[in-house]
């Protein structure tokens, strides 16, 4: 079992930054995949960033160069640093983990980019 708790969302203006955090209930070692997804109103959930245990990180084309996923293995926390935010980044952001062929999701945190 894995519990994921996101935090750090909020209301920002275009061009500003936010850092999302995902607190994981167990050690990150052994988790095959960690990732961030988002879902905007009326749209399907989409992958934003993903990190496999033995692979490199991948990012959606729409966020490349602006978003960075990182992890703190001591704090069992995964981060999503979001810079140069745009209106179209507005969505609920979800933390994701895959462990032993089971998918886990956090409850989501709202990010709103508005002037």
Walk me through this protein's architecture.
This protein is an all-beta fold. It contains no helices and eleven strands.
Q: Main β-sheet: number of strands, strand sense, barrel status?
A: 7 strands, mixed
- Secondary-structure element sequence? EEEEEEEEEEE
- Helix percentage: under 10%
Shape: globular
Percent range for β-strand residues: over 45%
Rg result: 13 Å
Give the gist of this structure.
This protein has 115 residues and is an all-beta fold. It has no helices and 11 strands.
How are the secondary structure elements laid out?
Blueprint: E1 4-7, E2 10-12, E3 18-24, E4 33-39, E5 46-52, E6 57-59, E7 67-72, E8 77-82, E9 91-99, E10 102-105, E11 109-113
Parallel strand pairs: 2-11
Antiparallel strand pairs: 1-3, 3-8, 4-5, 4-9, 5-6, 7-8, 9-10, 9-11
Primary descriptors:
115 residues; mainly beta; seven-stranded mixed β-sheet; globular
């Amino acid at each position: 079992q894995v519990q994921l708790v996101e935090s750090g969302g909020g209301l920002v203006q275009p061009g500003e930054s936010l850092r999302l955090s995902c607190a994981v209930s167990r050690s990150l070692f052994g988790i095959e995949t960690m990732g961030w997804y988002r879902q905007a109103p009326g749209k399907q959930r989409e992958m934003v960033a993903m990190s496999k245990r033995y692979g490199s990180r991948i990012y959606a084309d729409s966020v490349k160069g602006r978003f960075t996923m990182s992890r703190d293995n001591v704090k069992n926390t995964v981060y999503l640093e979001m810079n140069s935010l745009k209106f179209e980044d507005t969505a609920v952001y979800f933390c994701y983990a895959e462990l032993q062929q089971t998918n886990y999701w956090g409850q989501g945190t709202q990010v709103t980019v508005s002037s």
